[in-house]
Structures are given as C-alpha cells and as structure tokens.
Amino acid sequence: MPSTFELCPGRMIGGDHPCFIIAEIGQNHQGDIEIAKKMIKMAKDCGADCAKFQKSELEYKFSKRALERPYDSKNSWGKTYGEHKRHLEFNHDQYRELQKYAAEVGIFFTASGMDEMAVEFLHELDVPFLKVGSGDTNNFPYLEKTAKKGRPMVVSSGMQSMETMRQVYKTVKQHNENFAILQCTSAYPLEPENVNLRVITEYQKEFPDIPIGYSGHESGTYVSVAAVALGAKVIERHVTLDKTWKGSDHAASLVPSELAELVRAIRLVEKAMGSNVKQMLPCEKPCHDKLGKSVVAQVKIPKGTVLTLDMLSVKVAEPMGVAAEDIFQLVGKTVTEDVEEDESVTPEVVDSYGKKIKC
Predict the structure, then answer these.
(1) Along the chain (359 residues), what's the average pLDDT of each consecutive run of 10 residues?
(2) How many CA atoms lie within 13 A of 227 on its CB side?
(3) Is CB count within 10 Å lower at the N or C end of the chain?
(4) HSE of 295 in the Cβ direction (CA atoms, 13 Å)?
C-alpha cells in the first residue's frame, strides 16, 4: 500500500484518502491580480482542493540572452521574452496578497517554484507543499535543495524517461519521505494517444511506497477521470476563465464548468471503486428475491430417493429452493419428503444438506 502523508494541513493523500485535485492557474491570469483572485474563487467554487500558480525569479530561471530575445507571437505580452514574462510574473507582495485571499476563500494555495530562488521564496511564504514542474524534474541540484526544505513535494514527470524517474525518486527519497510523482506528457494541448495512462501503473510498480498521480494537458475531463480509476491520488489540471485568451496554456485548460464536472466525476468514481471483496450486497437482495434462480424438481421425486443430476433443474421458483450454485452438492443425497415435479427443492427436504459435521 502506498504511503499516506499530509500534503496540506489536515489533508492526507494516498491510500484510501480522496484524490487531491489541483487547479493549476499557472500564468493564465494574464498578469492581472484581480483575474487571479477570480480564478482562485472559481477553483474553490468548483470543488478543487488547491489553487496553484507558477513562481519564477526570472534572472535565475533564464539567461540574459534568453530574456532579451525577440518574442513575436500572438501570445506575446512584450517585444522581448523578458518583457513578456515580466508582464505575467507577480511580485512577492502580490503573492502574499493571493495567499491571504486563498485563505479567506478556504482553498489551499501553492505554486511551482520554477528556479531555486523561487523555491526559497515559496518556502519563506510557508506554502503547504512544493510543486516541481516537469522542466526541473531532471535538475538534480534543484531537486536536492527542494527536498531538503522538508516540505511535501509533488513532482511532475513530463519529458523524462523511466531511468531518470528512478534517479528522481532516489534523490528526493534521501531527503524527504513525503512526495508524490505525477505521470505527465508536456504537450499543449495533449492528444489522447500521447497520454500514456499505463505509465501510472508502471510508476505504482516502480515506486510502491509513494502516491502516484496525473498531471493532464488534454482536452476535456474523461482521461483525468480514467487516471483516478487507475489509482491516481493527485490530479492536476490547468484552468482558465476563457480558452480564447492570449497564452498557449488556455487551449489545454478547463473552464469552470469543466472543472466542476471533473471534480464531480472524480468523487463519483471514487465511490464506485468501492471494495475488492466480491459478495452479494444488501442492495441486490430485492433483485435476488424476485429473479434469483434456485433448484426445482425436474420430475416427481418420491421420499427416500437418492438424487441424481437429471432429476433437478434450475428456475425462478416460489418459494426459493436450494441456491442454484449448490445443485451439484445435492447429487447423492436423499430426499426426506415427496417433491412434486416443478416444485422447489428446499434445504429442509434434503438429508444432510447444509448440516455441519461435528468433529
């Protein structure tokens, strides 16, 4: 059984605990803190457990030349990539404001630390857990420093190999027991044939002592619900207020109605997973009483007859006789009363049927 741990105060994940649903706002807020607040409220109203952002300290994440390169795109918020990213990046005070608002709304708040300095800030901000985006999953110095913070971690695995993920597991595990790994494919939007949900079950085999989850970039909700049926304990999906807004993530994001439906579907599937014990349930008794089949006499069977299989048949009968699955147990036993043709063969008229042998 995978380990369970407290991902957020009072909220356990893993084992039989409910799937933890992350609404990834990322930078879909358009650089507008009021939109960001609306999205936090939307995530709460739709039933998500956590509203998540992406925090970068741009000079630590990008080289100078990367920030200075021209950025001529329909999604651009500036002439250079640096101008574009600065438009979308909230400062520390704004993050504190968003964190306070999330607390007022009643939803957990965190962010992906997109570089080591961003992780330092998020640690200082006292977020409940640290998210590692796929771009930093093979950044082992970053992973080690993040793990040493002692906060729970959620690690995405887009663009990585299984061998790299084994190394990721070992690196984090040395310093931090409380982490989950998410299957992820880094394409926006993601085509179904590239989702590879079977990786979830491979991760469960490879890393049986940690919760496994899924971070999806596909359209719609079906695939994410299927991930939960496969045992995903964390689901992360990008969200937006409008898929037509500027930005490459919006097309792969869920609008409020889709997020709400995803949450409902996940909670329904969790209930439906139920027990692994196969037995007749109380809810089945009315159907069984009405239509359940039992053993009847194929022919008239006089008292004292030793039963053979050709004397017996299975029908919906009144009253209900010996259970249909026990028909072979009747062969060789003696009837203690006459049984008319087409009458139920009840336990009371069969010698030794159902009686326990005393030792």
Answers:
(1) 86 97 97 98 98 96 95 92 95 98 98 98 98 98 98 98 98 97 96 98 98 97 98 98 92 96 98 96 96 98 98 97 97 97 97 61
(2) 33
(3) C
(4) 23
